């Protein structure tokens, strides 16, 4: 502690020196005629005062009888000064040498190393021995640099802080004596700032350089690289060395674009996503430090959206273009391509870099049609399926990622349907047309021709479906509204052909026998999938207009003729 030779004791200043007067911490040296009592020494003392150092300290000054005549505690402000410059009384300049921060020592200074035979005004009589009780709070030297010590570092560090980067970090801040002055943890939010652009104190700008996300670092900043002579508010006094324990949470540069890595691309990729496609994907969303903020897997539902149309944040809109079905990739989004300075709700803070690990389940375009690939076709194929035909077929249905949904083998029964009768989804109905018996196809059905946005039991919404089809049986059909059609021209004298016994009346037995004969000879075709007897009974009722149980010539009309008559009446 060095006291300046002024007429006012309240202006005395104590400084640290780098001169060590003992060979070990804990000795009580006598320096010349100065007596030092080191009555409280910290366990850790990484640095001792030497000549030329600046110091900040508290003190009480008494006479030998114990009477106090000055105290920094009473003034409410520690004293600051520099050692070894001859501005302080010689006894204090010597007595403060070798002090540690948080050390307390009593320094007894004889008159000739204090204010001598003149004293100091009315306060210190001539030839007075003074006793200084010192507590060292801080020390630094103008040659000091920012001191950094890495306490822990992540295994993987692909990028470190550079000037113009934007960082988010947690910190605990203390003075050199351990007094806390601020903590981001207590505030429940990180400190966010550009580096090297004057947003931070100079020492923190330097101390953050080279840090990796997840790294913790101990940073000591001398006062002239911190808040200097003015300090900051009530918590940071003037001339204070600052100590920060920093955890780097996030890092990006305002010029960053998205980053795509960790790609796993399937061997077969016939198509890549483009703007305007509708995509279904799973994702895990984390911050750069690995903390998860959201995941689709927990909800057991894919995230579904159009891409390249502004439905999702800009970075994801871009990162989902050019992907293959089944691809896995990691997309890293800088905040200006994610949720920006505002963040999103409670889970995503402002200026956060987001990391998405995505798995593309499928995608399609609203303009897509059914994709049909014939995997087997019989050599002989004279008849193919068409609208109104009754078909029997086997199928396997799965999602594009291979997830099995349904199969006709599940209940060991063939599936059947009448094509064009709205019995199956549109895409499947279309895929089953034009097939030969024995033909096999692989078919891709987009959701707008499948089960749509809502899906169905066991089928997710907006799912692209993959079918493996085999046509087993085919019965040619009849147009809608018909129960029987002629394959060849109908007899010119139809009633005479029906009236086998030529009695002018046709009962249901004669009518039925005639129709069955036409079908057997391939001259006519009944509607498939219905009981022939029901068809014949229905047809007979339509012709027996007076409901007397027989058809006469005047009652018999072909449906084509009836349709013409009905159309004429409507006109």
UniProtKB/TrEMBL annotation:
This is peptidylprolyl isomerase. Its EC number is 5.2.1.8. It catalyses: [protein]-peptidylproline (omega=180) = [protein]-peptidylproline (omega=0). It comes from Esox lucius (Northern pike). The keyword Metal-binding applies. It is found in: Endoplasmic reticulum. PPIases accelerate the folding of proteins during protein synthesis. GO terms for cellular component: endoplasmic reticulum. Transmembrane segments: none annotated. Residues 486-521, 531-566 form the EF-hand domain. PANTHER family: PEPTIDYL-PROLYL CIS-TRANS ISOMERASE FKBP10, PEPTIDYLPROLYL ISOMERASE.
């Amino acid at each position: 502690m060095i006291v300046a030779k002024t007429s006012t004791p309240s202006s005395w200043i104590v400084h640290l020196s780098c001169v060590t007067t003992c060979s070990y911490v804990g000795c009580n040296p006598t320096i010349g005629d100065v007596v030092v009592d080191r009555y409280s020494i910290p366990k850790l003392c990484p640095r001792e005062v030497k000549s030329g150092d600046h110091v900040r300290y508290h003190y009480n000054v008494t006479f030998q009888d114990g009477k106090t005549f000055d105290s920094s505690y009473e003034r409410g402000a520690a004293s600051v000064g520099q050692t070894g410059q001859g501005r302080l009384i010689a006894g204090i300049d010597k007595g403060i040498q070798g002090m540690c921060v948080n050390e307390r020592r009593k320094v007894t200074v004889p008159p000739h190393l204090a204010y001598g035979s003149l004293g100091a005004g009315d306060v210190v009589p001539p030839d007075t021995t003074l006793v200084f009780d010192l507590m060292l709070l801080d020390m630094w030297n103008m040659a000091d640099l920012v001191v950094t010590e890495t306490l822990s570092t992540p295994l993987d560090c692909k990028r470190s802080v550079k000037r113009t980067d934007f960082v988010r970090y947690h910190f605990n801040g203390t003075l050199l004596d351990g007094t806390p002055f601020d903590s981001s943890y207590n505030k429940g939010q990180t400190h966010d700032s550009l580096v090297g652009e004057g947003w931070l104190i100079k020492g923190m700008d330097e101390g953050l350089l080279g840090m990796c996300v997840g790294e913790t670092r101990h940073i000591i900043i001398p006062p002239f690289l911190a808040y200097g002579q003015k300090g900051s508010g009530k918590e940071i006094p003037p001339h204070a060395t600052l100590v920060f324990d920093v955890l780097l949470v996030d890092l990006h540069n305002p010029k960053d674009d998205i980053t795509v890595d960790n790609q796993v691309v399937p061997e077969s990729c016939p198509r890549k996503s483009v703007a305007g496609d509708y995509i279904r994907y799973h994702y895990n969303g984390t911050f750069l430090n690995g903390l998860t903020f959201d995941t689709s897997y927990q909800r057991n539902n894919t995230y579904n959206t159009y891409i390249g149309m502004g439905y999702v944040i800009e970075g994801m809109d871009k990162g989902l273009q050019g992907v293959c079905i089944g691809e896995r990739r990691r997309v890293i989004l800088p905040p200006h391509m994610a949720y920006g300075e505002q963040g999103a709700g409670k889970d995503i803070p402002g200026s956060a870099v987001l990391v998405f690990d995505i798995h593309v389940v499928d995608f399609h375009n609203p303009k897509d049609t059914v994709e049909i690939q014939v995997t087997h076709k019989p050599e002989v194929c004279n008849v193919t399926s068409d609208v109104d035909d009754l078909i029997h077929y086997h199928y396997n249905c799965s999602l594009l990622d291979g997830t099995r949904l349904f199969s006709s083998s599940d209940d060991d029964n063939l599936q059947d349907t009448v094509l064009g009768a709205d019995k199956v989804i549109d895409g499947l109905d279309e895929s089953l047309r034009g097939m030969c018996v024995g033909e096999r196809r692989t078919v891709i059905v987009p959701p707008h021709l499948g089960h749509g946005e809502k899906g169905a039991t066991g089928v997710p919404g907006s799912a692209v479906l993959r079918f493996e089809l085999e046509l087993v049986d085919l019965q040619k059909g009849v147009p809608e509204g018909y129960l029987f059609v002629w394959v060849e021209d109908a007899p010119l004298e139809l009633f005479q052909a029906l009236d086998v016994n030529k009695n002018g009346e046709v009962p249901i037995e004669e009518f039925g026998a005639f129709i069955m004969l036409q079908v057997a000879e391939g001259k006519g075709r009944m509607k498939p999938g219905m009981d022939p007897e029901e068809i014949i009974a229905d047809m007979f009722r339509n012709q027996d207009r007076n409901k007397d149980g027989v058809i006469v010539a005047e009652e018999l009309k072909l449906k084509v003729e009836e349709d013409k008559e009905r159309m004429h009446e409507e006109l």
